[in-house]
Design goal:
It is built from 14 helices and 18 strands. Helix 9 (280-296) runs antiparallel to helix 14 (465-478). Helices cover 36% and strands 23% of the residues. By secondary structure, the chain is an alpha+beta fold. The strands form four sheets. Strands 3-6-7-8-10-9-5-4 form an eight-stranded antiparallel sheet.
């Protein structure tokens, strides 16, 4: 009897970590196979199941992120994205940026034709200037987005059904967006840039590029590139997504000793505090500034991302060299503060461009005199110096400082930060505000009325922008010390 072809449904399992918890998604795909005898089918099914669960376990080991290899459904798409981004950034490298941005720069659309697709880049010079202001070179940006290493992917449970990709070094996120969301960002790009210019230590997520890719016979996709708030994530011990409300704001923690990444929520954080000591007032004020800006955009449902990692033992020391002092105490204070004294944290306004020159001048003076200033923390939080004769150590610190500035400039007040990292007495905190595209329109107003009926006497995310702003600020105030 000749074998006949039958159609069956096979199941592809995908595991990932999203904003709230690890989920398993099941996708079905249809394939044709030859009908086999009973024992052969049984053996074949067992082998198929073994391979599926083997792959599932492997992806689980990869902390909820897995490489988009050649068998992945997004492999072709991400390869085209990498090729298109490499060419788009090369165009910026080859053409000098303007001294001042014009209206044409904000409205600029550049289309590049490739073999199997075309890529459009929106407001390229604007985002290039933003990247430069964050201390990021175009070559560095290009290398990360178009490296040989495969992108990573995880599946989000967000209502937008967006696809999320992460560069292989985990430094940048690529997220598909709706046309409406892209238009919203581009229409508010100028005031977004002005806000980051006025407050270089803003907690708002840094958008680094907006693009559209069109593949033949497929629906075009809009996507944005943004900084990962949790970078570098090597020693992060806990991650939280905070909205300042109660309804649906609990996530089951991972099993003890599990290596799976789980982003927890508001109710998981209850009973804990962000311990910042002198930096607390700065953080409170900056959250007020950023949420007030989002209120002017009439948006809600944004999140305060928070992660923490323990400081190294040497970072816990109460005695610091000049270089370590910069690392430990100058992370978020106003540029007018003295580089060698800790002033009360103030609102971080525009950072003086020559502040780094001041730091190097003082360090060079110490080197020429053959002295280094060892700083000791007093009980009142100020610092007093002792003159210590150690010229060789100062030279080494000068080299260390240059390396530190090149690799970790976001921790210094004299540079505009792509992210914000703040050190408390015992923990280092990664903080950022994300998801700023939800406008409080007619549908959200209806959702607000419905949730008031469904969740009486409980707080939920869908409230007016002024109420949302006030509530998130109140949460930060109540959970910091």
């Amino acid at each position: 009897m000749f074998p006949r072809t039958v159609v069956i449904e096979t199941m592809l399992f995908r595991i990932s970590c999203c904003k709230s918890h690890v989920i398993i998604m099941v996708n079905t795909t249809t394939m044709a196979i030859l009908e086999m005898s009973g024992p052969s089918v049984s053996r074949h099914n067992r082998n198929m199941k073994g391979r599926r669960w083997g792959g599932l376990r492997q992806r689980w080991k990869m902390l909820g992120l897995f490489e988009i290899d050649q068998q992945h459904e997004f492999y072709s798409l991400t390869c085209m994205m990498k090729e298109g981004l490499c060419a788009a950034i090369q165009n910026t490298i080859d053409n000098p940026l303007p001294d001042e941005l014009s209206e044409d720069d904000y409205n600029l659309e550049v289309t590049q034709i490739h073999k199997d697709f075309r890529m459009e880049t929106y407001a390229g010079p604007v985002f290039a200037i933003l990247r430069r202001s964050l201390g990021m070179t175009e070559r560095e940006y290009q290398q990360s987005l178009s490296s040989e290493g495969s992108y990573l992917q995880f599946i989000s449970n967000s209502k937008s059904k967006a696809d999320f990709f992460l560069t292989n070094d985990k430094r940048f996120f690529l997220k598909t967006q709706s046309k409406r969301e892209v238009r919203f960002l581009l229409s508010n790009l100028r005031i977004y840039m002005e806000h980051l210019g006025n407050y270089p230590h803003s907690l708002l997520v840094k958008f680094l590029g907006v693009h559209r890719i069109k593949i033949a016979h497929q629906k075009m996709k809009y996507f944005i590139v943004m900084q990962s708030v949790f970078f570098p994530d090597d020693r992060i011990t806990a991650r939280y997504d905070i909205k300042g409300c109660e309804v649906s704001r609990w996530t089951d923690p991972p099993p003890e000793c599990s290596h799976v990444i789980v982003v927890l929520k508001d109710l998981n954080f209850e009973g804990q505090f962000i311990n910042l000591d002198q930096q607390r007032l700065w953080l409170l004020r900056q959250v007020q500034i950023d949420t007030a800006f989002l209120q002017t955009l009439n948006v809600l449902d944004y999140s305060l991302l928070l992660a923490q990692q323990p400081l190294h033992q040497d970072e816990l020391s109460q005695s610091h060299s000049f270089t370590t002092l910069i690392k430990r105490t100058k992370k978020s204070v106003n540029a007018t503060s003295s580089p060698t004294r800790v002033a009360p944290a103030t609102v971080p306004g525009v950072v003086a461009e020559d502040d780094s020159t001041l730091l190097f001048t003082e360090l060079n003076c110490a080197t020429s005199q053959g002295q280094a200033t060892e700083m000791h923390c007093c009980n009142n939080g100020s610092y007093e110096g002792e003159s210590i004769d150690q010229p060789s150590r100062t030279g080494a610190e000068s080299a260390d400082l240059q390396v530190f500035q090149a690799q970790n400039r976001r921790l210094l007040p004299n540079f505009k930060n792509p992210l914000h990292v703040i050190d408390g007495p015992e923990q280092r905190y990664f903080i950022g505000i994300i998801d700023i595209f939800t406008v409080y329109g007619f549908r959200k107003r209806l959702e607000h009325l419905w949730k008031r009926l469904r969740h009486p006497r409980q707080t939920f995310s869908t409230v007016s922008p002024p109420a949302y702003c006030h509530r998130l600020c109140h949460w930060v105030q109540n959970h910091t010390k």
